[in-house]
Amino acid sequence: MDSVRSPEWPVAPLGGLAGNSATARYGTSPGIGGPALGRTGPPPTAPPPPYGLPTGTGSTPPPAHRPPAAPPVPVKILIAGGFGVGKTTTVGAISEIAPLTTEAEMTSAGIGVDDPGARSTKTTTTVAMDFGCVTIERSLKLYLFGTPGQARFGFMWEDLARGALGALVVVDSARLDDCFPAIDFFERAGLPFVVGVNAFDGRLALELGEIRWALAIGDHVPLVQFDARDRLSVRDALLVVLDRALDRATRDRRA
Questions:
Q1: Spans of biased composition, class Pro residues (predicted)?
Q2: pLDDT-derived band of residue 144, with 50, 70 and 90 as boundaries?
């Protein structure tokens, strides 16, 4: 087969260097030192810089891997109380998600059965439950379950209370009779609870000491005043519930 030669490179003379050889083009043979041959200019004054390793390799250790943050601890809290005392409002004021409600319009069939009080403009009622949640310091997540207030929905309380660590019993100071069933339920169940007196229009019909006496609750049961419409006020009341539940858990562990 005939050879093919590039026209750019002249034929090497006998015993000479080929014009397209490494020695002729770069001055030295690969791996052999010697004078530069075939160069048209002076050699470089400094060698090229050494190859740099990519960031994070070689002697420099990669950044430490941070473990993922632990998920918040779930805590179930009940919001209980009589009819029309502000349970749904309490859940809605503090929930970080759109609360799940089961509100139904009140009809004439409820006249004489469901009495929200003379001061109330309530036109709906909870027929199942309310649900909301709020995260506290990224380590604790409260799941809030609001119970229906009417006695005919009492059969749901046992299911809603299962797994709960505590409860906030919401009270209307002008209608104390409506909260007795809730207090009796949690006392029988042995579930830690806090009585929160909802200050409608910022006022109470009775003083807190009078309310404690009327409800016949001991000094071991916290009694607080709060506003169901105010997020910070609801938060403070729920923190008292958490403190009560933690105290119960600590005493049970020591026992």
A1: 41-52, 60-70
A2: very high
CA 226 to chain centre: 24
Q: Which two tokens stand for residue 36?
A: 């530069």
The answer to whether 213 and 201 have CB atoms below 8 angstroms apart is no
Question: What separation, in Å, do the N-terminal and C-terminal C-alpha atoms of the chain show?
Answer: 101
Strand 223-226 to 130-136 pairing: unpaired
**Where do the structural domains in the chain lie, given as residue ranges?**
73-254
pLDDT range class, residue 251, cuts 50, 70, 90: confident
DSSP per position, 19-79: TTSHHHHHSS-TT------S-SSPPPSSPPPPPPPPTTSTTSPPPPPPPPPPPPEEEEEEE
Judging by beta carbons within 10 Å of its beta carbon (0-12, 13-18, 19+), is residue 253 exposed, middle or buried? exposed
Return the CATH number of 73-254, one of 3.30.1360.20, 3.40.50.300, 3.30.750.24, 3.30.1360.70.
3.40.50.300
For residues 121 and 99, give the distance between their C-alpha atoms in angstroms, rounded to a whole number: 21
pLDDT over 60 at 228, yes or no: yes
At residue 158, the pLDDT reads 84
Structure tokens at 81: 């109380």
Q: For 206, which DSSP code?
A: S
Amino acid (1-letter code) at residue 48: P
- The pTM score is 0.65
* Site of tokens 């310091």: 137
Strand ranges, E, within 82-139: 103-105, 124-126, 130-136
- Give the chain's radius of gyration (CA, Å): 40
Q: Confidence band (pLDDT; 50, 70, 90) for 177?
A: confident
**Placement of tokens 């179930």 in the chain:** 76
- Separation CA 150–CA 125 (nearest Å): 9
Backbone angles phi, psi at 102, to 5 degrees: -125, 55
